[in-house]
Design a protein that fits this description.
mainly alpha, globular, membrane (chains A, B), 563 residues, 23 helices, ion transport (chains A, B), homodimer, transport (chains A, B), transmembrane helix (chains A, B), six-stranded mixed β-sheet, antiporter activity (chains A, B)
Chain lengths: 563, 563
């Protein structure tokens, strides 16, 4: 049995560990500055790849990320598995009923939002392939179709993430965008399957066969399979150990679907994506099982895949500004024009139509995945690949802020954003609410350049109007202060409990002092809502008594709400 | 960049999907008949390997499980990752403080339980290597040390599982066994690291270096790292998104530790095991994060690894009865003798000492993992490998029943074990408790060959003594019946709710009718406790109104308690 050598295993694990650690680290940094995490993850790969690390330390790079041999093959297998599992999760996020429910508008947005960039891409790819960096020897029709697809496909996971960040994922507008994106992606993958078929990637069967079987497979997976799974999943869960039975079933189902689509000549990820759609649609897939799969895949396998993108090419040497600008222009103009038109035809007002189109314009993940495949099959050059990655990064970057601007949205603000390390008292000395407020106000004074008396007075005034114990052991004394630039949140813990006259008669063991600017734009209410939601989680209330310092308190409250 | 070909990817995914599905299926079958799941998982691999599938369909086998080429290397990389992650989870299950807390007894059991089989194995391997199938060319001292280690190491994951099944995991006796097994495994791995070093597996550094660095690494990971992690983990969780930050950190930590131990000349799994010990010991590793890792690894990666064992050799051709019996005898006699002696010296009575020794005698997983490595490095022949796997299977099989017998334990019985498909009414017609009992009794009659009147009478009599509404929407009318061979549980749902006079004044929406034999050995109480525990889970109470049939009801209640 062929086996990896000792040094290949060493290199493989070291490479995986370094890639994962740096991808997650830069992903977190990206988030901290308000950018999508995927940007940081891709950047980590670019740093480790031939662009930076590879050109600085070519020998180390050859050891860690070998281009050939057993280590390279094992790495390729792992990354293929990673992207296949990521597509499973992306598929699971899709709610097919949403697609049908939002009906007319979503359909218009999807069709027109797809048609324009598709047409732009196809025309450019067909009539001016040189402009797009077409290289001799590639299949001209496949190339034009590929350019059309990659410019018209959207980035479902990124879009979903942006909508969640903006707090409009479940709103009518959010549902329109998601439904349109789902429809868009399904169509895009179907066209891409045809492209792969044309390239004879399968080589196992003729093109007509591939396309026919793809269509049958798609219909089977989105129409028949959800019904079957509604019978199968409860049966599996009823007759096997939990959650092993259902996890094993879901993953084998995904792997077999992936093997099938790979076999009929389109890529494995197409099968796992549809397996995800079918599984995700079943109300019988337990929420906890879903979470286990999603978390492990999203935070382990996905970062590894996105980081691996940067290992493939040198992003400096292959950067072609003109090509990148052309691709960016075609993609964004087509998508925004088409989607706006579609939303208007569907009856939305102009401003909302523009919002929808900006939402649809994020073309990150899926475009890159197609690009990776096209690069592997030598359909596109490294220059186009780099341009596609840059296009994906730029559109994903712009989408959120543009939508926010045109729809006049604000990101939901969390209390942790305004809670400095100096604003924490592990054990309040106070035994009643008035002195507790004063104790926290003394801490707040220097942080905002006010006297503690001024703060105390404002908070007392508010507290006298109505007590601020909100129950479940939490109190939220607060006030607006003139001349404050940003909100400030302080926390004091009181193991003994302090009476804040809460409706449920519990004493408060966690006391928040919330100071907001005088011209409050609603931030105070958002902070209060965030605190209430955080302490609704029983686990948080139970464990808050065990924390020993600011960092542990922060770690605990962060785990209450995924963010 | 070397990449897997289209047909290699097809074969890889197909092989993974088939292996996972069959391993989980046979694993579930094994559990259903009361055996450890790992037995079924290993059997699945033997069926797919050269023993059965490979000799029946050699061409298909060569396609699915190639012995060389890119597919084989990618598969090897994945399986190596799988076992590395499994050892991370095995390490996370270890609670170092337990080891120190149970002090004397555990230490005696560990040391003597290790010493005897180690001595037996070493003497046999050194003075009579021929008897153990020593093959020319192997390193004699390494061989003797390997036999000693493999016969003396215990199977922590299996032992933990058996103790949980017997419901004594948290009992004093259970803690002694676990603590001894942990100590045993740590020692065993240390010796095995030396064996690997002797074989020059590392080839990167001399043996003295390997042993020295191993010792330093072990001390670092079990003494220093837990303290460091208690600082680092809250910090990571406080400053990153949840649960992405902590998941990414834990997995990169594991991969880097694995790369390190592989580099210093011992296997990657040693590093991930210790990384798991260090991580698992931290109280700051959130329970949900832990669960995500454990579930994904235990139910996806572990079955793949255990199934892959059977792919390595032909278990029929290489089966040597004499060798197997010798190994079995040495392993069990040494372990049981040593552990019993240790427990007696530690002050336990004879019966409990025997129980401890039977608990320690499960030598499944770890032994096999060592065997796989030894086979790879050609230290042992295929015949010994087969004998080791059989020994592991047999000892794991015997351990539970022997312990049960000598400690006079019973497995906890669950109501689902006595709840037939015919015993379910989706919507009770009844509006009061007396007619509800009668309605369920009519259903029960034919199932146990009694008239419904007889049943009704007995249950009414009990119900009149005291109402059986236990609150939270559940009622449990019950009775003992003469001549009943086994308990019977029936369930009726009542969306409108029926008053069973519960202490919390809720009406019952789920009514259990529980019929137990006259000479009840406590099963009725166990069933009642199980029902109460199941419906303590809020999610179960919320969702029980949505089930549409028996299978969905069963699926729901199974998910309440992992089993």
């Amino acid at each position: 049995m062929s086996q990896l050598s000792h040094s290949e295993i060493t290199a493989l694990f070291l490479a995986l560990g370094l890639l994962l650690a740096s991808a997650r680290l830069l992903g977190e940094l990206a988030r901290a500055t308000g950018l999508p995490a995927v940007l940081g993850e891709i950047t980590a790969g670019i740093l480790w790849g031939p662009t930076v690390f590879g050109s600085l330390f070519p020998q180390w790079s050859a050891f860690l990320f070998p281009l050939s041999g057993g280590g390279a093959l094992a790495f390729d297998g792992l990354i293929t598995l990673a992207i296949t599992l990521f597509l499973l999760v992306a598929g699971m996020e899709i709610d097919l009923s949403t697609v049908w429910r939002q009906g007319k508008v979503a359909l218009y947005v999807a069709l027109l939002g797809m048609f324009f960039p598709f047409a732009f891409g196809f025309m450019a790819g067909w009539w001016a392939p040189g402009l797009l960096g077409f290289q001799q020897g590639a299949h001209p029709l496949a190339f034009a179709l590929f350019m059309a697809t990659v410019l018209s496909i959207s980035a479902l996971p990124i879009i979903a993430k942006i909508l969640m960040d903006l707090n409009i994922y479940r709103s009518d507008l959010g549902v329109v965008i998601i439904a349109a994106a789902v429809f868009n992606d399904l169509l895009g993958w179907l066209v891409f399957a045809m492209v792969l078929g044309m390239l004879g990637v399968g080589q196992m069967m003729p093109l007509g066969y591939t396309i026919g079987m793809t269509l049958v497979f798609v219909l089977l997976m989105i129409l028949v399979m959800p019904l079957l799974l509604n019978q199968i999943l409860p049966w599996v869960q009823a007759h096997s150990s939990w959650p092993g039975g259902i996890l094993g079933f879901a993953l084998s189902f995904c792997l077999l679907a992936a093997a099938f689509t790979e076999w009929i000549g389109i890529h494995a990820i197409f099968g796992s994506f549809l397996a995800g759609v079918a599984l995700g649609d079943s109300k019988h897939l337990n929420e906890r099982t879903r979470t286990t799969i999603e978390q492990f895949v999203s935070f382990i396998f996905a970062p590894l895949f996105f980081a691996s993108i940067g290992l493939r090419v040198n992003f400096v040497d292959n950067f072609n500004l003109l090509l990148t600008l052309i691709i960016l222009l075609l993609a964004m103009s087509g998508k925004i024009l088409g989607s706006t038109l579609g939303a208007r035809l569907g009856g939305l007002p102009l401003r909302e139509s523009l919002g929808v189109s900006f939402g649809m314009s994020a073309q990150g993940t899926m475009g890159i995945i197609l690009g990776v495949l096209a690069l592997q099959f030598e359909l596109i050059s490294q220059e186009i690949f780099v341009s596609l990655v840059v296009m994906a990064l730029v559109t994903s970057l712009l989408s959120g802020p543009l939508m926010q601007r045109v729809l006049r949205l604000k990101k939901a603000r969390r209390f942790v954003n305004f809670f400095p390390p100096q604003g924490f008292i592990l054990r309040l000395d106070s035994r009643d609410r008035w002195s507790a407020i004063h104790e926290l106000a003394k801490l707040a004074g220097p942080l905002i350049d006010k006297t503690s008396e001024e703060i105390t007075r404002a908070v007392y005034a508010r507290e006298k109007m109505m007590a601020t114990g909100i129950g479940q052991g939490v109190a939220v004394p607060h006030a607006r202060l003139p001349g404050l630039a940003a909100p400030l949140v302080l926390v004091g813990l009181s193991p003994a409990g302090i009476d804040f006259d809460a409706p449920d008669t519990t004493t408060a063991k966690v006391i928040f002092l919330i100071l907001a600017p005088q011209d409050d734009d609603g931030v105070q209410l958002e902070i209060l809502a965030d605190i209430a939601a955080t302490f609704k989680v029983a686990e948080i209330r139970e464990k808050v008594g065990n924390v020993n310092n600011y960092v542990e308190f922060l770690a605990l409250v962060r785990s209450a709400r995924g963010q």
